[in-house]
Write a structure and sequence with these properties.
Elements lengths: L4 H11 L9 H21 L4 H25 L1 H11 L4
Helix pairs in contact: 1-2, 2-3, 3-4
Length: 90
């Protein structure tokens, strides 16, 4: 499941430096968080969808963790702000 273009655009505008900023770590973490939220909602409705949980969701969580670890090392202040804005536990 991917995000709709409208949702991607909204996330990029709110977390990016400019409207075309799709590659910064902040935007990538925000997009991954949004995809994780949508998959979590999907799994609440479809409890037996193991392939989504085992493959899709866990891979996305690992990618986001990797990006967050990178941010914590490179830009600690930006990391703290991003975690606060996204409502993550870190």
């Amino acid at each position: 499941m991917s995000l709709s273009p409208e949702v991607k655009k909204r996330v990029i505008e709110s977390f990016g430096i400019n409207a075309n900023d799709t590659g910064s770590t902040f935007v990538q973490v925000a997009l991954l968080s949004e995809r994780i939220r949508t998959l979590t909602e999907h799994l609440k409705v479809n409890k037996k969808d193991f392939s989504t949980k085992q493959r899709g969701l866990l891979v996305l969580i690992a990618q986001r963790k990797s990006f967050l670890n990178y941010l914590a090392k490179k830009d600690e202040q930006g990391y703290k702000e991003l975690v606060k804005r996204l409502g993550l536990k870190k």
